[in-house]
Each structure stands twice: as structure tokens, then as C-alpha cells.
Amino acid sequence: MKSPSLIRALVAFLLAVPLSTSLAFSDDSTSPNIILLMSDDQGWGDVGFNGNEVVQTPHLDAMAAAGVRFDRFYAAAPLCSPTRGSCLTGRYPFRFGILAAHTGGMRVGEITIAEMLKKREYATGMFGKWHIGWVKPDEVGTRGFYSPPSHHGFDEYFATTSAVPTWNPTVTPDDWDSWGNKPGEPWKGGFPYVHNGVEAKENLSGDDSRVIMDRVIPFIEANQSQPFLATVWFHAPHEPVVAGDEFQKLYPQAGSKRKNYYGCITAMDQQIGRLRTKLRELGIEKNTVVFFCSDNGPSDGLTKRKVASAGPFKGHKHTMYEGGLLVPACVEWPGTIPAGTSTDVRCSTVDFLPTVASIVGDSMATKANRPIDGIDLMPVIRGETKARDRSLFFGYRRLHQGIDGQAIISDDWKLLREAKKNGRVRLYDLAKDPFEKKDLSAEQPEQAERLRKELELLDASCQRSRDGADYRY
């Protein structure tokens, strides 16, 4: 029998803790809403919170200031499709077989964040650029296959297979002279968006980021009383990059290319602000984790014209240098993540799944019968983890023209093979040379050989996964 003094102490403790507070803590701590925001081809230097004093990104800057800014955040590949798959699976692209853009599609054997959360009774939605499989069943191509978001755990989706113009997404821009259609013609048939399996034909004009957010907001409003996952992958500022007049006018001193590029980013930023405002209007911001990053470094052509920026880093999209892999990134969770913090721990898009798994209390990342390459970012965010406990592996392969680049970062050492025919192998000490100015492969042959062997082992592990070791298909 318990002693009277022990019973009195227990009663006093229970009376001191409001029941509603206890329940709220339980609900909020185990089932927060998850929002994954991603821009397309936005360079590390193309955002205010990384020091750009020209491009206007007030809402992203506010988000970074209200949470954690990642100073060394890496895309899993220097181009879009492989990185997108890594965000959802926590695995290197070479594991699931999407090695370049328009190449293959997400396999149903992969476990995505959406599938993990759906089992925990989350509503799941995907909005924007999918690009890891066709979204229309009658699309036929030699480099991909039908694999829409609904095959990978998403209840609702409003998505395109690949890029669209960032202004009037159904029409080819007037000055467009690259791949695709001729100016003024319908873009990819005129109806590139699919909403839950049906071609969308309304509310498709003007700013594309607004077109996307017009579908995100109703999804959040409809599911505000239950936990939800909203994956929002903007097309901005991927080419064809066009901004409306109201956004171009914000940059009167810029040339035409910069007006469109900067204006397009500011238009996307405005919609991110609209999202953050809606969360606060609904009173759910403290129970919502919002991540933001880009999918790779800035466009090759726009970087060469000094329109897009990788900041002080070498390289751009399609290269294995830091400028092709480092991207702007931050996360906000009011009341849980301290405001005004930053970290220079090397983090990556492969870290999203294990982080979300940790946040919701799912054991998938620790008990999966397959390699999970990412880490839980919460100890990094709390300042408990000062360095990554494993290497980072990057790859980009398109055997046409001999494109086959790889890189590994182990501690502060980086070994890379340039993503071009007969690409050179280079070694850098990122602690002393973050801008990759001095190749040390000849001076440090032992270090180069150590990383080469580790890269070889990682590549072989990914090859086994790609060939079916992790699941039947």
C-alpha cells in the first residue's frame, strides 16, 4: 500500500499540471504538420539570408531568422530529379536509380516520407514539379515512365512532370529560343498540370508559384484539424524563367534577364509569405515544421551571364563542385526550434526522411531493412551534433557524352570526379579551401586514395540497392 505522503505528493503534482497542457504536448510532439518547400535551380547566393543584397526575399529571410539557417546544406545531386527522390526516401539517388533528369522514375519499392506518414494517419499532398516519373499515363518517352505522386503515398497532388514557364505556365514565353516549343505555342500541350489524375484546365495563368499555392492553401485549410504533409516543389527560378510586370518593376536597374530571374524569386517568396501567414491565421504555426531548400545549384547559362549566383562557391548546376551542390536552406518550427540560429554542420536532402521520422516518432529510419543514408537533423538543430558522423556521396550520370560525375565528402575532405567526358579527379580540403581553388590530389596521394576507396565502397553499395537488394520489384 502506498504511503499517505506519497499519495499527497502525487495528487499535488497532478493538480499542478493542467490537463489540456499535457494533452497538447502529447499531440503536438508526436504529430506535427510537415511542410517541405523546395525551389528549382536557386543558387546558394540567390537569397537574402545568404547575403544577397539585391534579390528581395523578405519572407524567406524572416523564416530563416525565425528558425535555423543551414550554411552548408547539400543537394544529393547537382540537378533536379535525383535530388527530389533523395528528399522523399532519405537515400542516395544512385540507390533508387534516378541518376539524371528525365531518367527513369521513382520505384514503388522505395518507401517515401508520404508513405511513412500516411500510415500514421497524416493527410498527404504534393504540389508543383514532380520530375521523378511521368504524371500522365499516356506520356511516352524513352527516358522515363509513368510514376505519379499517387503511387508513392500522396492522397492529393497537383503536379507537372517537369519544368513549365514561371509565368503563364501553359504558354511558351515570347523570347524562348531553347528546348520545347516555339514562342506563343502551348507549353507541352497547353495543360501540363495534373490534379489527382485529371488535367487541370482552370486557374493556370499568371505567376506559377501563385498557381501552385492556390492549391496548397485549400489543402491545408481542409486538413487543419489533422496532421498533414504538404510537399511544395516550386518551378521557380528554373528556365523558362519569366516574372510578371509587378515583380520586374521591383528591379528597375537590372537588365531583362535579371528582372525576370530576381522577379521570379521574389514572386515565389511572396507565396511562401502567404503560406506562413495562413498557418498563423489558422493558429497551427507552432505545430508545423516548415523546411526550405533548393534542388541544386544555379543554372549553367544564367550563372555564366552572372544572373544567377552560387555565392562565393565554385561551379554551378551539373557540376560536382560546391556551387553545383550547396543550396540555400532553413527550417522553422515556432516554439520548438530556437530563432536566430545557424549551423555549419554539413547537411543534405537525404536527411529529410530520418529527421521527419524522428520528429513523429517513427522507427522506420532506424529499423529499415535497407540503407538509409541521411541523419536526424534535430540534434544538429539543437546544437548537440557538431559534425556529421558519416560521409556524403553525390552522383550524376548520363552516359550520353560521357557524363559520369561523382563526389564524396569525408570530414572536411572532398574528392570529386568532374561530370564530363574524361573528367579529372580532384581533391580539396574544404576546411582550408571552401571555394575549391587548390587541387591537392598530387600533394596528398594517401588522402586521395583513402577517399577513392570509400567512394568505391559507397558506389558498390548503391549498385546493390539499384539492382534489387533492398526489395523485390
Automatic annotation (TrEMBL):
Domain of life: Bacteria
Gene3D superfamilies: 3.30.1120.10, Alkaline Phosphatase, subunit A (3.40.720.10)
Keyword match Hydrolase: yes
Domain Sulfatase N-terminal: 32-361
InterPro entries linked: Alkaline_phosphatase_core_sf, Sulfatase, Sulfatase_N
An example molecular function term from Gene Ontology annotations: arylsulfatase activity
Keywords: Hydrolase, Signal
Signal peptide region: 1-24
The UniProt record lists the keyword Cytoplasm: no
One Pfam family matching this protein: Sulfatase
Family, as annotated: Belongs to the sulfatase family.
Full protein name: Sulfatase
Organism: Rhodopirellula islandica
